[in-house]
Amino acid sequence: MKFKSITSHLLFRIVLAMALGIVCAWFFPGWLGRIFATFNAIFSQLLGFVIPLIILGFVAPAIAEVGTRAGRMLLVTALIAYGSTLVAGFSSYWISEGLFPLMITGDSASQTVGDSAPLAPYFTVEMPPLMPVMTALVTAFILGLGVASLPADNRFMPLLGEFRRIVSMVIEKVIIPLLPVYIFGIFLNMTYSGEVASILSTFAKIIGVIFLMHILWLILQFCAVAPLSPGSRNPIRLLGTMLPAYFTALGTQSSAATIPVTLRQAEKLGVDPAVAGFTVPLCATIHMSGSTLKIVSCAVALMITRGMPFDFGMFAGFICMLGVTIIAAPGIPGGCIMASLGLLTSMLGFSDADCALMIALYIAMDSFGTACNVTGDGAIAIAVARIFGKNKQE
Q1: Does the predicted model carry a pTM greater than 0.85?
Q2: Are 191 and 26 contacting, i.e. CB atoms less than 8 angstroms apart?
Q3: CATH number attached to the domain at 2-387
Q4: Which of 38, 201, 240, 242 has the fewest C-beta atoms lying within 10 Å of its C-beta?
Q5: What is the mean pLDDT of each run of 10 residues along the chain (394 residues)?
Q6: Cβ contact 70:152 at 8 Å
Q7: How open is the CA angle 256-261-265, to the nearest 5 degrees?
Q8: Of the candidates 279, 298, 240, 251, the residue with the CA atom closest to the CA atom of residue 95
Q9: What burial class does residue 51 get, using C-beta atoms within 10 Å of its C-beta: 0-12 exposed, 13-18 middle, 19+ buried?
């Protein structure tokens, strides 16, 4: 599959870029390192310019498309999916806040190259964004809800769809191909300034923890819906039925590409085919509990490593906005993290280097978040079918 090839190659290029950035810092002359610092300065400006467009391009048409499918089942499914995303995000925050300070000391021994001063760019090109992140999000809501209220044959819906295609093309053809060079420059600079040891130590420690959090979250989801199941009430057996969708998502790294398998397994859970045919494709767009869990955990870990202050109030607003911002993330590698960059900078105070590290860490675990998302869709299908009294046995 072409998509699988793209995602695999991107992960390989990012890992290679990280390794080369660390190694090359030991023999690159300062003038050559500053060339990559200049590229990073320009690329970060481009990324900042594109972020509001990403929010407009993804959120507005997603809200419009969902809004045109009016009905109680739509409302119930959307509320359950968003609630699942919120609970996953808050659970991830509480676990990370309690566990990561014990694992991440923030004072890992570091090795520096040269005078340990960060590499300065020769110049940069200012690219002010068209609007702030929150303005883009509010505008996306207004456009999406407004278009959803218009007749089905309105002219604005195709325009929103075409704008989404343009933004997706910019990410897929420009941002993603240049991302490994950007990651290379970040790790080159971190090695010069002596930060790389603590960052790599953090990466190694939290990846395993986040994977276990994903598994625990799936078990909790199916424990919650097991009493509502028309068939087996054993949550482990229900989860086992959804494993083909889980492993398919591991390979495709795409909720959309996994829909046929997720749909088939949801029907095997006893969900009425009509309900499964409605909830599974919808949840592939709006149910992002696994991705939210991962982004929140990575953000907490990075803030602890960097010594950045944070509290529950800061993350509460971030999680609530994140659950909306990453809906309808594009079918390209790292779509959710790209859509969340604006919130990371505006609400958590992340720098360009912090965002680059988040991208690298997220893509390294991209398949696990997607697999968690689609497997949880089966649990939501069980709940929706029970609420509306539509199961195969009934």
Answers
A1: no
A2: yes
A3: 1.10.3860
A4: 240
A5: 49 82 86 89 87 82 68 82 93 92 61 58 86 82 83 82 87 84 86 71 79 92 88 85 85 72 86 84 84 92 87 92 77 73 88 83 79 91 83 48
A6: no
A7: 130
A8: 298
A9: buried
